[in-house]
Design a protein that fits this description.
Blueprint lengths: L1 H15 L3 H10 L4 H18 L2 H21 L5 H23 L4 H10 L1 H9 L2 H11 L13 H22 L3 H19 L4 H27 L1
Helix pairs in contact: 1-3, 1-5, 2-3, 3-4, 4-5, 8-11, 9-10, 9-11, 10-11
């Protein structure tokens, strides 16, 4: 409950109550702006209202101010998206640490949780980058000269979509939602066929990769269900 309350306070303070007016003021005037401290104060009020524990409130307020100050000082013109993700990861990391201290989490307890869920963890880790590599190697035998996918960020976005797709299919397999898996496959195939054209080598390449990716996710789900 402590972790959930801190996450709730963070979501309300960083997204619902942080208006575009506050964001623009922070970015324009940096640390000399009252917008920064108003934003930090809002977090403090939210955390204390939900928990009424001073040391946790101070810990969240101080670390939030430090993280936001670092972001405002170091963020460049083209780094907004990257710093947004890093900023959010740091805030959540602080919440995890505060919760661990308050609830006296132990390494032994964490290892017990890992041991109890090792099959699930192994399957999910496999379905991220390892599965992407397996798919890439398996379909690399086809000539890719007709493919026109841009490199860089679009390639990374495609890899992320593939990972999320495999995890979704894995979860659907665990609950035997075969119709939903079929809908995912058909929707993606139709999208790429319309986007790239029915006779496009790129469309066939993507569909082949998708089928292999989905089969790996289904296999991981079936194995996890059998062993778990």
């Amino acid at each position: 409950m402590l972790f959930a309350k801190l996450i709730l306070a963070h979501l309300i303070g960083d997204f619902l109550l942080q208006t575009s007016f506050l964001v623009k003021g922070k970015e324009k005037y940096k640390l000399g702006s009252w917008h920064v401290w108003a934003h930090v104060a809002i977090h403090g009020v939210l955390v204390h209202a939900l928990l009424q524990t001073w040391w946790i409130t101070l810990a969240i307020v101080i670390t939030h101010a430090i993280i936001d100050a670092m972001k405002l000082t170091m963020q460049g013109d083209g780094d907004a998206r990257r710093w947004f993700m890093f900023d959010q990861l740091l805030h959540v990391g602080v919440i995890v640490v505060v919760t661990a201290i308050a609830e006296q989490w132990s390494i032994a307890g964490g290892m017990d949780w890992v041991e109890a869920n090792v099959i699930w963890l192994t399957a999910v880790v496999f379905l991220t980058k390892p599965a992407s590599w397996f798919v890439a190697v398996a379909i690399s035998c086809w000539d890719d000269s007709e493919r026109s996918f841009p490199a860089g960020s679009m390639h990374n976005a495609g890899a992320m979509i593939g990972t999320l797709e495999r995890i979704l299919v894995f979860l659907l397999t665990m609950v035997s939602a075969w119709n939903a898996i079929g809908i995912v496959l058909v929707a993606k195939a139709l999208f790429y066929q319309r986007r790239l054209g029915p006779d496009s080598g790129s469309a066939r390449y993507v569909v082949a990769g998708t089928l292999l990716s989905v089969l790996m996710a289904i296999g991981a789900g079936l194995i996890t269900s059998a062993l778990g």
